[in-house]
Amino acid sequence: MPNEPIKILAVDDIQENLVALEAALDQPGVELVTASSGLDALEYLLKDDFALALLDVQMPGMDGFELAELMRGTERTRGIPIIFLTAVATDERRKFRGFEAGAVDYLLKPLDITILNSKVAVFVELARQRREIANQRDELGAALGRLRAYGDNSLLATLEVDADLRILNWFKGAERTIGYHAQDMIGLRLQDAPFFLDEERASVQDAIRELLDSEGRRAVQDHRFRRADGARREGEWYASALPRSSGSHGSIMLSMIDVTERRRAERTQRLLIGELNHRVKNTLATVQAISSQGFRHARSPQDFQEAFTGRIQALSRAHSLLSATTWDSASLRHLVADQVAIGAIGEDRLRLSGPDIDLPPELALRFSLILHELATNAHKYGALSNETGTVSLSWTREGEWISLRWQEAGGPPVVKPERRGFGSSLIEGSLASDGARIHADYAPEGVRWDLMVPLVTGSECAACDEPETAALADLPASDTKACAPVQELAPAPPEPLPISEPQSEPAQAIPLPSLDNLRILIVEDEPLVAMELAMEIEDNGGIAIGPASSCEQAIGIIEQAHPDLALLDGNLNGERIDPVADALAAQDTPFAFVSGYDRQHLPANHGHRPMLAKPFLGREVHAVIAELAHEIRNTAG
Questions:
Q1: Is the pLDDT of residue 538 over 90?
Q2: What element of type H or E holds 544?
């Protein structure tokens, strides 16, 4: 132990000599152990560690020379320095025997106390230094053992490289994480290490050299690596510079954790947050469109409030159904049951017939609104407006298509509407872009609606047996239905009444210019949002083309119709908009994004394009289009 005294053994058969030595060698931190014979001395030597042995030469039984020879023959006592003490005049021959027995000095009695103390002090100091070195050795060994245990048992892959970027140590953690064994890695330079990717090898070496040359001793770096099985992984490397005794950095300890799964989870989290943001804003834009379109067709504020509340409730219940299935699908039968639950259709007056079919999310939302509109109009004008009428709703599945029939009976005599109302506009607009076949029959005995809707949307218009893009190529939106025009659900309402007293335009508002018959492509998978954009375009003198609800449809329109401008959704039912943006850029067609995504989720090559965030105001749509039109004029000029 560090604070234990340094022990010296004194052996003499005369007790007075031992007492004199005890008095002479009274040094701090030194303990003198005395023995009166060689046998006693051997017993002490087996129990304790001694820094020095003072042996009398002439002793009965075993003399000093014999004791010294025994000490040199044992591993435990071989390294103890010996000083012989004798009162007998000696010659060179006796001295030689003493040194041959292992003595480091030979002193004659009577002893010079000063000389004795000086010689003893040298050996005491050497013993202290040996003890300190041993303690440091033990501490260093323990530290190295802990480091080895840490490197071997840690989840981190740990290795050490020297100033020449040669691998000095390769721990078990590195073997487990990276897959290579220590015997194959130790001695390799990093430039030859098989676990670094070729494209990143130079940057890894530069980063480590910079740490060696800088004053900083720690750094965190991101480098990909390749496991022994060939798999590419992402690593987070913690580098610590270990100094030499001179203070310069002698080596680098690298500890790496495989963060591939964590980075994947972070990317997924960012994607999910972006998708959530997109869905929420798309929903708000849909609600905005329902509000705007409903207000245009409302007879009165009360009529608007009732219609708007019912549509939002239908949309909300469809969202609840989708949320229950983690936004995977919704049962058509459950959608109908929800309309019954909210009182839109009386259970006793509804006849259902058809298999249980799961609808994809977007189609489920559209069907919920369609069913609500059909039920609302039946209540206002059709079979449910009296006490005896009934509704028959039947459907079948034909491959990837749903054939649905809404048949009313027993209501007032049906009169074919003269103008299109919001209900029929919603049905047409929400399904036509998917190639649905929609037909309304206004027979006097009851309205019948027939809908043939694809479960999987595509770019082929099944009703016309030709691509939708061909039908849309040169016509404005009002003339580009995928199928025959749908008849109205009800007579056209009068001009809508304002919710509050009309107010004059604010004095600071500056009228925006007319769009001058600009042909503007709408690429949007939310039908109601597309309807709202088309309305804003047409109200300001433009011509709306589309809408296109898939990249394939949009690219077909671009190639055939060559629109002047375009408004692009940031995502089409999970399909990235990049190909459409690239196609427009190739034709030098100005375009802007209308999206619920942030800019970081939009095509990276088109980050400079204007962006309109959902939900939007009509004037914002006009302003963005005016900005694009100004770009056309500048190019033409």
A1: no
A2: strand 543-548
